[in-house]
Write a structure and sequence with these properties.
Elements (H helix, E strand, L loop, with lengths): L1 H6 L2 H13 L3 E7 L6 H12 L6 E3 L36 E6 L7 E2 L18 H6 L7 E8 L2 E9 L11 H17 L11 E6 L12 H7 L11 H6 L13 E3 L3 E3 L2 E5 L4 E7 L13 H7 L5 E6 L3
Parallel strand pairs: 6-7
Antiparallel strand pairs: 1-3, 2-3, 4-5, 5-6, 7-10, 8-9, 11-12
Length: 315
Amino acid sequence: MLRDILRGEAQVEAVVEVIRAADADVLLLTGIDMDAHGATLEALEGRLAEAGAPYPHLFTAPGNTGVRSGLDLDGDGRVEEPEDAHGFGRFPGEGSMAVLSRYPLGDVTEMTTVLWRDLPGGDPWFASDEAEAVQRLSSVAHWDVPVELPGGALHLLALSATPPVFDGEEDRNGRRAEDELRMWQIYLEGGLGGPPGGPAVVAGRVNVDPVDGEGRREVLAALLGGPLQDPAPEGPGGAAEADTGQSGPPAQDTVDWDGPGNLRVDYVLPQAGLEVAGAGVLWPVEGAPLDGLSLATAQAASRHRLVWVDLVLDR
């Protein structure tokens, strides 16, 4: 990733255009390769500043992707595979996360090393007793990132859950994805060191559609019906490219996959009671740019589309 940024690769330039078009004050990136010292993130911010979209306040940290466990975590009889890392990855930092902000960031609470077996009410599956003793819950990371606004801190509760597929009848990845979201449910309710010291927004790749595709939806439904609200963001391109067999609202889709088709898997979910002024998915249609962004550029950047929410906060 660092090499691609320094070379000005086409996908990097497309990502820069998407971020510039979104014009967000606070940005969470998922599925982005990170290094332990933050050089990649600094290089990306430098390119964004050159494009007129500076983000002076940055955060990233080593997550679980590619961190070797030394054990057979998925129970296939082999070790030292990407599936046997604490989070799927061929190298540490593959498919990680980063936060970019125009506002200062406070001290981040990291929950990335919480063991899956220690999650209250969780539904884990382990290949062995040895795996149970070391398996972390976060496939990437869980961060409580305070964004220091003039009226007080807004807490960004970030995650990037594992896809609920690529497993067997034991549904290991489906269980894990649900429990990764459950962690924030428990935190908001006061467990695991919570609740956050101020209003919060859960954001990231939840990897579960409310209606279609694979995955467990119980925790997502409970959050949307309780501590969080769903701004129901829409993008015109999601509706234009949706599969006709889907039963959910296609304009709310956030990803275009070759096999499963269009699904809603990326979320920005403000705490209930916060005032939402607007929301959307930055998904243009052919021949009709959205906020100056063309469909071709959005597609070149990622299969995922950027989700945005505008909040009105007391100052």
